[in-house]
Amino acid sequence: MRYQISGKQIDIGEALQTHVKSEIDTVIGKYPGRPTDALVIFSKDAHEYVSETVVHLSTGLTVQARGKATEIYAAFDVANERMEKQLRRYKRRLKDHHIERTQPVELSGASSYILAASDKEDDAEPDTLQPMIIAEMETKIPSLSVGEAVMQMELAGAPVLVFRNERQETGINIVYRREDGNIGWIDPNPAP
């Protein structure tokens, strides 16, 4: 497994890197889904350290966790515990999907844009209806089943996930967390 351990304006020592590698190996080793790479980024937020951990599994799923603490080791341990909790919660489903899926998840390219937020507090009409684009990036849209998409959204801690439904020839689907706590699914091509 490849590791990328870095710090944003923080020096990361060998001891911390060794601790991170051994702890991630211990957690990931308990669960199915061979990991391909892990990204751990440490940063400082006021008086607390922040650890953001992302582990990519060979099945195409991604596990993300974030932890905060006043000590850098404790921040990583919080993120690692959250990652282990997510994997434990989805262990059976990961096992089932590992058996069904013989090849990694297919990814399609797409453009992703970040639009500037309106800084006007009043209800005045905007000068133009064209939004101001402040960033343009490329993103990947996975080809998943609906169950896998919900699991991926939960593992990533995201409020919404756009995916290509592998049960259909064409069409983009969306799963999202509703305000009532349930999961919504938007399928533009419902079966007749």
From TrEMBL:
GO terms for molecular function: ribosomal small subunit binding. It is found in: Cytoplasm. InterPro entries: HPF/YfiA_ribosome-assoc (IPR050574), HPF_long/plastid (IPR034694), RHF-like (IPR036567), RHF/RaiA (IPR003489), Ribosom_S30AE_C (IPR032528), Ribosom_S30AE_C_sf (IPR038416). The keyword Transcription does not apply. Its main location: cytoplasm. One of its GO terms (biological process) is negative regulation of translational elongation. CDD domains: RaiA (cd00552). Residues 73-100 form a coiled coil. Residues 130-184 form the Sigma 54 modulation/S30EA ribosomal protein C-terminal domain. GO terms for cellular component: cytosolic small ribosomal subunit. Keywords: Coiled coil, Cytoplasm, Ribonucleoprotein, Ribosomal protein, Translation regulation. Signal peptide: none annotated. Gene3D superfamilies: Ribosome hibernation promotion factor-like, Sigma 54 modulation/S30EA ribosomal protein, C-terminal domain. Belongs to the HPF/YfiA ribosome-associated protein family. Long HPF subfamily. Required for dimerization of active 70S ribosomes into 100S ribosomes in stationary phase; 100S ribosomes are translationally inactive and sometimes present during exponential growth. Interacts with 100S ribosomes. Associates exclusively with 100S ribosomes, which are dimers of 70S ribosomes. This is Ribosome hibernation promoting factor. It comes from Profundibacterium mesophilum KAUST100406-0324. The lineage of its organism: Bacteria, Pseudomonadati, Pseudomonadota, Alphaproteobacteria, Rhodobacterales.
